[in-house]
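**Tokenised fold:**
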Amino acid sequence: MKVTTTTLSLTVADVDASREFFCTHLGYEVAMAADGFASLTRGEADAAADIVLLRTGAEVLPPEQRDRQAGGLILALTVSGLDAEERRLRDAGAPITMPLREEPWGERLFQMTDPNGIVVQLVEWVTPAGPAV
């Protein structure tokens, strides 16, 4: 098997709101869209997963999946220049729901939450301070 693209498919109540969030704040572009559906990509610019947004209740989904919504999921994007991204997003009014912080193991991160409750975490890895474990 050769994986050629990674796509995250999310079922949300308001496709347009999530589409706007990902395009405005995270540089995604609409590859295709229809009523209750949007396929988003960042193209070949980087390694970010493509995202498909489906409206809750969409008949293209199996009946047992139609009323499920994205929940308990964190979309983590590893980036460079985390401080600059946090400033850019804060200045743009992005909904930052967990402020920038650094974990003892060397993970620097902050989180945003889109209008449908999708948590997006931007992460940058650094050499942890202190003695090696």
The beta strands are 7-12, 29-34, 37-41, 50-55, 74-78, 96-102, 107-113, 119-125. The domain at 7-58+67-125 is CATH 3.10.180.10 (2,3-Dihydroxybiphenyl 1,2-Dioxygenase; domain 1). Helices lie at 15-26, 82-91.
